[in-house]
Amino acid sequence: MKQRQPRRQRGSAPTISDVARAAGVSPMTVSRVINGESNVRAKTREAVNAAIQALGYTPNRAARSLAGVEQINLGLLYSNPSAAYLSELLVGGLEQASRYNVQLIVEKCDVELDAEEVAYRLISRGVEGILLPPPLSDSPRLVEVLETTDTPAVAIATSRPQKNVSAVSIDDYRAAHAMTRHLISLGHKRIGFIVGDSNQVASGHRLQGYRDALCEAGLEASDELVAQGLFTYRSGLDAAEKLLSLGEIPTAIFASNDDMAAATVAVAHSCGLDVPGDLSVCGFDDTALATTIWPELTTIHQPIIEMSRAAVDLLVKKIRARRAGREEACRQLLLDYTLVRRQSDAPPRRRPLIKAVGASGTPETRTE
């Protein structure tokens, strides 16, 4: 597990995301300005050009030339409910696409309703490869469409790589195990867990990592401390309310993504609980949301931007090999995660845990 590195090292070349931050716009807008597209406001174009000049940003022409003169069209299908996750995914994909002669076509779809139809449509329009972030990366039906049409694909953040599809991911089990062990090391013995969408394999791996860490520490992995979520903020609210309505509430809650962890913090505040004084809350992903709420979240840093970049690389190399008459073997890359500690976790303190009415009718309180 590597120490977390800053997103941009001193002396490194500026990227599209650096320009976007300086200009106060999205990376996609920067890309439109660079490519000379007309659907950008004059004021916005001026701000982007000023940021480009101030940072000394130049597109990597050398890398683009390596990709060949002919443009490569890639599709990115998404059905993820987390806007923060999608934003980082797009940053990485667009940055890497700008280094090659690649057009990235982004399409929204529903994994249950029209994912296969959208994939067929993109392929019929000349898309040569497709990026599949979760939950689409775990869809057997979608993978079957890609195999049938002989379309290269890369699954992002999947915990179940398939033999005919390249993949870029982290070890979800070990990451969840590490976070649970961290909470145990702080002195927490009653730790709640909010599971992600059951349709995503990573959800089960994170749950198992949590359970195994508790068992190894000699703590009970009680079913009542596990609440079902869907990786959405709304589902996080419902799950947190369930955990915080138990007769004996947990001293810490570990949520399977930052959206649900942020919802847990909101519910704790509405119940009059201090985070982390009364309740430690930890998340997973380390999206921008983790540092835009108070207190800032302790979370697992999943390198989403780097995973997206690596996925584009794998896909471009496979397509270039095909154009040259070679067949590039599918690869599964496992990137490092990092446990990032901020302000939302602390050792448990002595506080009321159970409030009940005794035989005499007098309220009784048991402390930790």
Class by SSE composition = alpha/beta
Radius of gyration: 23 Å
> Termini separation (Å)?
33 Å
Tell me the CATH topology of the domain at 172-302 and 341-348: Rossmann fold
Largest sheet: 6 strands, parallel
As a percent range, the share of strand residues is: 15-25%
Per CATH, the superfamily of the domain at 172-302 and 341-348 is Response regulator
- Total strands: 14
Tell me which CATH architecture of the domain at 172-302 and 341-348 applies here: 3-Layer(aba) Sandwich
Q: What low-confidence regions span 5 or more consecutive residues with pLDDT below 50?
A: 2-10, 61-69, 352-368
Mean pLDDT: 86
- Gross morphology: globular
Strand arrangement in the largest pleated sheet: 2-1-3-4-5-11
Topology pattern, helix = H, strand = E:
HHHHEHEHEHEEHEHEHEHEEHEEEE
GO molecular function: DNA-binding transcription factor activity; transcription cis-regulatory region binding
Protein name: LacI family transcriptional regulator
Organism: Microbulbifer thermotolerans
InterPro entries: HTH_LacI, LacI/GalR-like_sensor, Lambda_DNA-bd_dom_sf, Peripla_BP_I
What does this structure look like?
The chain has 368 residues and is an alpha/beta fold. The strands form three sheets. Strands 2-1-3-4-5-11 form a six-stranded parallel β-sheet, with helices on both faces. The protein has helices at 16-23, 27-34, 42-55, 61-66, 83-98, 115-124, 140-148, 172-185, 201-216, 233-243, 258-270, 304-323, and strands at residues 72-78, 102-108, 129-132, 153-156, 166-169, 191-195, 226-228, 252-255, 280-285, 298-301, 332-334, 338-340, 352-357, 363-367. The protein has twelve helices and 14 strands. The protein starts with 15 loop residues before the first helix and ends with a strand. Helix 11 (258-270) links the parallel strand 8 (252-255) and strand 9. Among the domains are: 14-58, 434 Repressor (Amino-terminal Domain); 172-302 and 341-348, 3-Layer(aba) Sandwich (Rossmann fold), CATH 3.40.50.2300.
